[in-house]
Design goal:
D-Maltodextrin-Binding Protein, domain 2, five-stranded mixed beta sheet, 13 helices
Length: 385
Amino acid sequence: MKQLLSAVAIAMLLVSLAPGCAPAPPATAPAAAPPTVAPAVSSSKTGWEAEWEKTVLAAKKESELLVYMHLAPEARIPIVDAFKKKFGITLDTLTAPSPQLITRINSEYRAGVYQVDVYLGGVSSLTLQSKPLGYLSLLEPALILPEVKDPKMWQGGKLPFFDRDGAVIAWLAILSVGIIYNAGLVKKDEIGSYLDLLKPEWKEKIIMQDPSAGGNPAGTMQDLVEQWGLDKAKEFLRYLVKEQKAVVTRDQRQSVEWVARGKVPVGLFPSTAPVIEFAREGAPIATPLTKEPKRLSASNGGLAVLARSPHPNAAIVFVNWLLSREGQAVVAPAYGAPSARVDVPAEGVPEIVRPKSGHKYVLQNEESSLKQTETEGEWKRIMGQ
């Protein structure tokens, strides 16, 4: 693995020394399932059981795999340990924010370096940036375990593919919080719509994460576009900035911290990770039940297998384990978010980000992400950038 990492460093250095040169295309035209190279075994098992047994044996011969994941370094430990204990396969990881991981994957593939097997992180940018370049495999052929392939085991009664082609799976289903408030400063029913924030009593009492920077803020604004139309959504944002004097920040933690500490009563478009963090710590933050529909987001719970995975069998075993009930019971708590599986309890997940039964939600997917990129320019103009 150290030799591979060194190869990456050299390749990326060569790329950086020649900024005027167009990047070389990948060596293959991917978007195909990772190959299964399994030895013949003597077994009375047939069907999926025989396929699974052969794949696990081949994976153990590969002995390791590398996963790029958007997760706190310490939170990866239970995942690594559980997978090693179950299969005896070493799970090497590189942890970083999703944008950095996606940039790294794209740079490596352009340089002809194929060291990463699996990606766990944000889904939108991966789908819109890496998939069109052919850097991702199709996942459905890699799914072996019946409990993983059973649509009834997933929210909405279907496999949670994020994209139309089936290269990315959204295995978390987090209630995307568009508004938070300090429960000690705001009454439960004071905010019943985003439009309530335009009332005089909220002037200079809102901190807003900048929607022109993308992410959850831009996603929430896109939800409002779908609900109201573009013109009304633009006027809403313009009024917040110009008339309500909302504090605008790009610091993902700042908006949640200010609301949690009572510096301002209301936060708009907060990022999911700090909401979960502060809610777990018992901070007095809550989200209102608004007239506008809420969105279910994968956040950093996306899964993809790279097209040139150097350990294809180990990657298949990891994917099936991660998407199983057993794997989700380990991985979802490490991410601090609810699983998209219906048979995995949400114990330990803050109530503020749990989907509520009986409510309708907007599902984040490839189509909504494409629309989001089309409207982000509008928010940049309003924010004066």
